[in-house]
Amino acid sequence: MMKLLIKIKTGAPWLVSLGLALMLVFGCSLQTKAQVNLDPNGISSLYWPFTTGSYAGDNIEFSQCDGWGITGENGLGYHGGGNHVAGDYYSEDWALCGGNAANSCGEVINSPMSGEVIFAGFQNEDFGGQVIIKKENFALRIAHLDTVSVSNGANVIEGTKIGYVGDEGTTNCHAHITLYKNIGSPGYNGHLTGLSLLQGGYSLTATGFSDVIKQSYKDTFAANFDFTADILASEPVPNVCNVHPNIQYAFATANSIKLKWGSISDASSYSVSIGELGFYQSGITGTELTVVNGNLQPATTYSVVVCLDCNNEQPYCTGGQVTTGSTDTGNCPPSSISVNAEHTAITISGLSPSNGYIARYTESGTSNWRDTDITDFNVTSNSIIVDNLTGGASYDLEVLRQCGGNTWSLATVVNNIQLVSAGELPVNVVGITCGVVEASGTITVNDLIVEGCEVTCAASQEVIFSTGFEVQSGGVCNAYINDMPSGSGNQRMATADVENDSEAKNTFTVYPNPHQGQFTLQFGEGMDEEGTLKIFDPQGRLFFLQNNVSTGQPISLNLSGSGKGMYFIYFITKSGTEVRQVVYE
């Protein structure tokens, strides 16, 4: 008789006869009835994520245990202990124990729950490679991955391979695993929801904040969990053959059809058929296909089907219809779309709110459009910002316009969009006490009175002194044009009360500064363009983000209860970036 090894929460293995064990059959795979259960008020049950070894147990000496264990400050940690070094409550760092921690790197890690991937890639908050999966009002983060095997927008199930354990962003091989609840709730004093931060790959940790904020973070987002809905490595994992591909979009021009679908498993292949053409192609390992066929007719509807190939198992398919465009583009005339490169964003203007748009972008020089570079826009204005890009990098961009149903036209193609690095952004100096301002671009000095101190402006292009600049008794102002070393474009700026600030026409002021928890941004009369407002806290983390900010009205912000210290305010427009510092005392 077959035996099935089932691990219960205490870590003690029980042998259960197959006749007594309750199982579900998925295609050719076996799975226990231990279900993933997300509990906002207790301990959630998740699927065992590793393919080799089993759980070593609670409170066992880490150097002597066997299998996978939770690292802690004092040896092996335990489920739900809240013993993580940082402020990620209930987070667990998993590694092979018994002196094998270094062997953890390269181990496959699977998804502990089903859901939608809302972030997949590398992020600079010491997480390294990470995957964040959303299900209902929960989200799960697995970080420090060496390789990420899924992409943004993918739908995964329990047991889907999401990557390989690594040491990216840390010093030792391990997987950082955190479960969050109530992600739709506002965090950090109501400025951003947990979901909006997670979609950018950012942390929800409260490290560096007051005890009140830490407790608020724990009560709002921290979710305790255990791997009790697991299948040990000796059992086959669920088969992906019972999942239908998710067609992200199907669009057509006059003589081509382009399909894009979400990745289910990087070990799977797909097939595509177009019935009216008699077209069929199998063994597709990517997640998109362009069909250019001389038999395609303009303004004609075709049926397309995408199937997941399952090694002689019954394939699972998803179908839809797409209509090719008209050669005269009568119902979808060309539009005048303009593209403007900024620091970490690309602004697309000239859009029509009545149409749907898809923007695809990738780093220049790559041969394929990656899944993580697909963004669907719900356009409600004539412009939109593609944000969270890498400053200094070069991108290629396609903008597709919906012409009714699944008919799309290629609105514009722009290659080699060069984003400026941080130091190349125009720096507008309104007032500094004393010190140095550096930029590898242009520095503009407005309404600056230097008295009793020394100010130095160093730029690689030019330093411009505008009306309002004055050096009084005891003051010294130096200006240099030189080649800045790579990475030296830090903008060090201390904002102070300046006599002529109220007359600044093309900038914004911050008052009061310093403040006791509340301050206001006041825009100048000549500042009449929308922009993106970003505020970073004293630890350098994104604290506040708002796109399409109008300069017509002052903006008041409340930091009460947040960490005190120096906050950096960035206002990014097509004309450049204004930077201010504000002190919370």
Number of domains: 5
Report the strand count: 47
Helix amount, in percent?
Answer: under 10%
Which stretches are low in confidence, meaning pLDDT under 50 for 5 or more residues running?
Answer: 1-33, 73-83, 230-240, 370-378, 484-506
CATH class of the largest domain, named Mainly Beta
Structural class: mainly beta
CATH topology name of the largest domain: Glucose Permease (Domain IIA)
Report strand %: 35-45%
- Helix count, per DSSP? 2
| Radius of gyration of CA atoms, rounded to a whole number | 28 Å
Mean pLDDT: 67
CATH superfamily of the largest domain: Glucose Permease (Domain IIA)
Shape from CA axes? globular
Q: Please describe the biggest sheet, giving its number of strands, its sense, and whether it closes into a barrel.
A: 10 strands, antiparallel
Determine the N-to-C terminus distance: 71 Å
CATH architecture of the largest domain: Distorted Sandwich
Task: Write up what this structure looks like.
- With 585 residues, the chain is mainly beta.
- The protein has 5 domains: 25-226, Glucose Permease (Domain IIA), CATH 2.70.70; 241-323, Immunoglobulin-like (Sandwich); 338-418, Immunoglobulin-like, CATH 2.60.40; 423-491, no CATH class; 505-585, Immunoglobulin-like, CATH 2.60.40.
- The protein is 3% helix and 43% strand.
- It is built from 2 helices and 47 strands.
- Strands 6, 7, 8, 9, 10, 11, 12, 13, 14 and 15 form a 10-stranded antiparallel beta sheet that branches.
- A hairpin with a 4-residue loop joins β16 (186-187) and β17.
- The model is unreliable at 1-33, 73-83, 230-240, 370-378 and 484-506 (pLDDT under 50).
- Residues 102-182 form the M23ase beta-sheet core domain.
- This is Peptidoglycan DD-metalloendopeptidase family protein.
